[in-house]
Amino acid sequence: MSLYKRSGVWWYDFQIKGVRIRESTGLPSRSAAARAEALRKADLIQRQTGVEAWEPPPKFDEFAAKGFASWSECLASAENGVSCR
User: Fold this and answer.
1) 32 DSSP 8-state letter
2) Which one of 13, 41, 79, 83 is separated from 50 by 20 to 30 angstroms, measured CA to CA?
3) Total count of domains within the chain
4) Domain that holds residue 10
């Protein structure tokens, strides 16, 4: 972690796979700038590896309205001899 202060604002400077990243955090606090640097590194690494961000599961009412309703309609049509695919 290489942070330095310039004109009252913290900047970070690091390398990922040989590419130099040098950007302003726009923050006057060193601790906040360190968190911003960590978030930026994590974002860049995540993009390079192709790992998608985790999404929380839907709430029950959302699931019931979207997922379960279409499933129950499909089940009802299957009982009448209609394919669900």
Assistant:
1) H
2) 13
3) 2
4) 3-49
Summarize pLDDT for 10-21 with one digit per residue, the tens: 999 999 889 999
Whose structure tokens read 């390079």?
Answer: 48
At which residue do the structure tokens 């040098």 appear? 22
Does this model's pTM top 0.70?
Answer: no
Residues 40, 66, single domain; the answer is no
Handedness of CA 27, 29, 30, 32 (dihedral sign): negative
pLDDT, tens digit, 9 for 90 and up, residues 36-68: 999 999 999 888 887 777 788 888 888 888 777
| Together in a domain, 41 and 62 | no
Positive or negative torsion for Cα 63, 64, 70, 71: positive
Kindly state whether residues 66 and 80 are assigned to the same domain.
Answer: yes
